[in-house]
Design goal:
Order of helices and strands: HHHEHEHEEEEEEEEEEEEEHEEH
Bound molecules: zinc ion
Number of helices: 7
Helix content: 10-25%
Shape: elongated
Radius of gyration: 24 Å
CATH topology of the largest domain: Jelly Rolls
CATH architecture of the largest domain: Sandwich
CATH class of the largest domain: Mainly Beta
Number of domains: 2
Oligomer: single chain
Strand content: 25-35%
Number of strands: 17
Length: 383
């Protein structure tokens, strides 16, 4: 095949099927699957080098795409892991960046465009392949997104503070409420949310969509009042493939050697939830383990900081799992950390530096401790 490139082909299509094979055989997202991707990636690199050696790389559009993803040992379903693929292109006129919208069948229009051939008009029931908007700097044809594929902003509660609104379901006041449904809005209207990088949204959330944090983006929350006691509630996608620990949220640096920093962090570490607390000259952890096998996929985690009793309570899937008593000095230092960050550490470096991503849904911060009654309301809301 590398010999074929020496002959300077006008058009070359190469299918590398082994990644899919490794997924079927070993499971998608497994170590073997990723090893195969690395191997195939090397082959793609050699093809690119061959184009360079043939002296035609400057006049070549190099496109790389997968036809589908996978889950467990198969694919063909509706989950994002199966449907969503990467799409990479380099060559003359390619602008870089990420297109707002593109589907796999757009490859055909991209090829026609690159070869300087006519692209048939868009027809929803006929030829519907289009050049993704903004992909080439010399193509300004508007992209038509089919009605059926427009992702609406799904609002779970109309009138947050109305008598029937989500904000009035609980006896505790809500100080932050993010449903992560294709938007980073705080439904309570009490906090400001600033996006750093890019937070991505996917359709397979708990109720509505879900947001992806880490490597590509995180958010900083302003104006969050922790008060004396408070509770976090959130859904996390417990990915068994998650390597090492991910910093879910907090205002303290989780890096080793910086234990002197004040504030707190919530970390997901393999099969455990860890709350890190620092008071400026000392630190401590409250660790609660859970079995991901029992909760394949989404896990609800609620952590209460009870100032009156100096307790940290971790609730997993609406069951109180663990209570730790910690020194008052840690409680006093809780709000003394840095900017409150969700999706990475306070420096925005812990997850992104490790190329970690994770998905989170419905982040809610309650004032005070969740009573049994509130916990039941929450459970009922999600059942
Ligand atoms: Zn397959």
């Amino acid at each position: 095949m590398l010999d074929c490139i020496k002959n300077k082909p006008v058009f070359l299509f190469v299918q590398l099927d082994e990644v899919d094979g490794a997924g079927h055989h070993n499971g998608y997202g497994t170590h073997e699957y990723f090893s195969k991707i690395t191997e195939i990636d090397g082959m793609v690199g050699r093809m690119y080098d061959a184009y360079q050696a043939a002296g035609i790389i400057d006049d070549t559009l190099f496109v790389c795409i997968a036809d589908h993803g996978g889950i467990n040992h198969s694919h063909g379903g509706w989950s994002d892991t199966e449907k969503r693929v990467f799409f990479a292109a380099s060559g003359r006129g390619v602008t870089g960046g990420e297109p707002e919208f593109a589907v796999t069948k757009d490859i055909s229009a991209v090829v026609l465009y690159a070869l300087g051939l006519d692209i048939p008009d868009y027809n929803e029931n006929g030829y519907s392949s289009q050049v993704p908007e903004g992909m080439f700097d010399d193509c300004d044809k508007p992209y038509i997104i089919p009605e059926a594929m427009l992702r609406p902003v799904f609002r779970q509660t109309e009138g947050f503070d109305s008598p029937e609104g989500f904000g009035k379901l609980f006896s505790s006041r809500i100080n932050l409420c993010m449903f992560m449904d294709n938007t980073l809005t705080d439904e309570s209207g009490r906090c400001t949310v600033t996006e750093n990088g890019r937070v991505k949204f996917y359709s397979n959330g708990v109720r509505g969509e879900t947001a992806e944090f880490g490597k590509t983006g995180n958010i900083v929350i302003g104006g969050l009042d922790f008060g004396r006691s408070f509770t976090f509630s959130l859904w996390l996608f417990a990915d068994p493939g998650l390597d090492g620990s991910a910093c879910i949220l907090g205002n303290k640096s989780p890096e080793r050697g910086q234990h002197q920093s004040e504030g707190f962090n919530l970390l997901l570490r393999n099969h455990s939830v860890m709350v890190q607390l620092g008071c400026g000259n000392d630190d401590t952890d409250s660790v609660t383990s859970f079995e991901t096998d029992g909760y394949s996929g989404w896990v609800n985690i609620a952590v209460s900081f009870d100032y009156d009793n100096l307790e940290i309570t971790t609730v997993i899937n609406f069951d109180r799992k663990h209570i730790d008593t910690v020194d008052k000095k840690y409680f006093d230092a809780l709000s003394s950390g840095g900017v409150f960050t969700v999706g990475d550490d306070v420096n925005g470096q812990f997850n992104s530096g490790r190329n970690l991503i994770f998905r989170m849904d419905d982040l809610i911060v309650f004032e005070g401790i969740l009573s049994d009654k509130d916990l039941n309301i929450l459970k009922k809301y999600y059942s």
